[in-house]
Amino acid sequence: MEDKRILYVSSEVVPYLAENEVSLMSYDVPKMINDQGCQIRIFMPRYGNINERRHQLHEVIRLSGMNLVVNDLDMPLIIKVASIPKERIQVYFIDNDEYFKRKATFTDENGNLYPDNDERAIFFAKGVVETVKKLNWVPDIIHVHGWLAAMLPIYMKHYYKDEALFAETKIVTSVYSQGFDGTLDDQMINKVKFDGVPTDSITLLETPSYENIIKVSVDHSDAVVIASDNLSSDLTQYIESSGKPFLPFAGKESFSDAYTNFYKNTVL
Description:
By secondary structure, the protein is of the alpha/beta class. 32% of the residues lie in helices and 20% in strands.
């Protein structure tokens, strides 16, 4: 595994957001792989509730300044970076005032999902790929965590399918029980189709529930990790019958060897 390049793309990462299953694994797995001598990068959204001063985020001017089109609107991309203290791990933050300045992650103060969460997910996916292209840093594996990052496999397999930079890159998606109730905007499928993604590959997005979004992400991944011990039977069965190589749930005490062997023997 030494010197392999692994890009971690997550909707939540500690220490920048509160601890939960997604944010903890989005820190623990990269740290473990980093300790083995691999080259890693972590990408996450720059939500407004991340304290930029405390975590010493700063804008990377040479990477910022691009506009990304989401549903026929030009949205400016701002890239910020910070280092996880003591770990020498760089974290890149995808930022845009319209999508991420608000002082919460996915819901408003009443617990209602933000109506533009679908567009935030599309912007995040495009922002990650465009920034990696600018860095000219070719990942062997892209490992996706959390539902807001779940559009990345779809866009990699369609919108960016002709990018020579990623010709050998494999995509792994970790599937968690931590999702959301209800659905995202019912026009989500049309916003993704606007980017040339064929309808028959994203039919499930006609009802953009948590489980349907994850299923479409699984469909477009090269391998899958069951990251929650209590994953729903529906998602578990979908993964098991998908034909994709998958790693069953591995607890805190055993995930290090399990993930390393899965990367080495199954994904690469």
